[in-house]
């Protein structure tokens, strides 16, 4: 069944981010439609549904259905948003593109692409879900953070550290066995925050299942709106969706980490004493690093 169309248009420049957040859940023929849109948005904006169907080796009806499953009212709605984004991008261009022949040129290109993806990273996020997550994390007796892989594991550790620094006890075990054992000992008063860009990592999903079976609230942070993690989570936070298409594969990690930092700030903002706890933690860290000072 098609998902309900979005109640409002996504922010300018974020249409592709919305597509990326949903593409993995589409049927194969519909996914081909989405992939053509992601790969050739400037051309799709001027095509007809029949043109897109031909390029995706499918039918016009499938194009319309794919657009609806991506959250748009139909292909014309998608075209309108792509044209809007294309116009905004063209009006915002200043000078020639950064040359990539030099390290500094490549560096500027990566930073420009990351900045663009950061600007649209919150497009798939549900505000009510965010409010619920902040409340749950602020009130929880115990917070277990789970993340595996080269991107999600560092994000989990960084988030746990920032929580502890601000007086919000949290833990992010690295070992997958310890993750699952810890999740199985949670209670209804606890939260398990699970980070997985794909939402499909079996090592990450196992602790989510254990936490849910234990009665804890499971919060999922992912880049894909219809994934196994979203299906398991009590609260799903979908952000980013940059995937490997942009910024040389780094945008997704940067967007997720930025979101998690914002989440930590929001949680600590509603907890009494967070600022004082952070000041005490900073003094303690300085003392550890400078024992003779």
TrEMBL record:
Keyword entries, A-Z: DNA-binding, Transcription, Transcription regulation
Domain SIS: 133-284
Domain of life: Bacteria
Coiled-coil intervals: none
InterPro entries: Homeodomain-like_sf (IPR009057), HTH_RpiR (IPR000281), RpiR-like (IPR047640), RpiR-like_SIS (IPR035472), SIS_dom (IPR001347), SIS_dom_sf (IPR046348), WH-like_DNA-bd_sf (IPR036388)
Domain HTH rpiR-type: 13-89
Keyword Transcription recorded: yes
Keyword Transcription regulation belongs to the record: yes
Protein name according to UniProt: MurR/RpiR family transcriptional regulator
Organism: Rhodococcus gannanensis
Lineage: Bacteria, Bacillati, Actinomycetota, Actinomycetes, Mycobacteriales
């Amino acid at each position: 069944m098609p998902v309900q169309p979005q109640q409002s248009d996504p922010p300018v420049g974020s249409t592709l981010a919305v597509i990326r957040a949903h593409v993995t859940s589409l049927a194969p023929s519909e996914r081909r439609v989405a992939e053509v849109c992601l790969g050739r948005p400037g051309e799709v904006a001027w095509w007809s549904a029949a043109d897109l169907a031909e390029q995706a080796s499918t039918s016009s009806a499938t194009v319309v259905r794919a657009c609806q499953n991506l959250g748009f009212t139909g292909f014309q709605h998608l075209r309108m948003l792509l044209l809007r984004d294309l116009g905004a991008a063209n009006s915002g261009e200043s000078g020639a593109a950064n040359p990539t022949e030099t390290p500094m040129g490549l560096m500027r290109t990566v930073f420009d692409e990351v900045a663009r993806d950061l600007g649209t990273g919150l497009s798939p996020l549900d505000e009510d879900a965010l409010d619920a997550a902040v409340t749950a994390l602020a009130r929880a007796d115990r917070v277990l953070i789970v993340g595996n892989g080269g991107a999600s594991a560092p994000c989990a550790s960084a988030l746990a550290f920032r929580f502890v620094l601000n007086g919000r006890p949290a833990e992010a075990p690295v070992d997958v066995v310890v993750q699952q054992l810890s999740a199985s000992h949670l209670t209804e008063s606890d939260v398990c925050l699970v980070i997985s860009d794909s939402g499909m990592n079996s090592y990450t999903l196992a602790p989510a299942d254990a936490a849910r079976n234990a009665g804890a609230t499971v919060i999922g942070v992912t880049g894909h709106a219809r994934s196994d993690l979203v299906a398991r989570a009590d609260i799903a936070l979908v952000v980013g969706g940059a995937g490997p298409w942009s910024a040389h594969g780094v945008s997704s990690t940067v967007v997720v980490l930025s979101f998690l930092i914002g989440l930590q700030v929001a949680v600590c903002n509603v907890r009494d004493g967070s600022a004082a706890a952070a000041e005490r933690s900073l003094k303690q860290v300085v003392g550890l690093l400078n024992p003779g000072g």
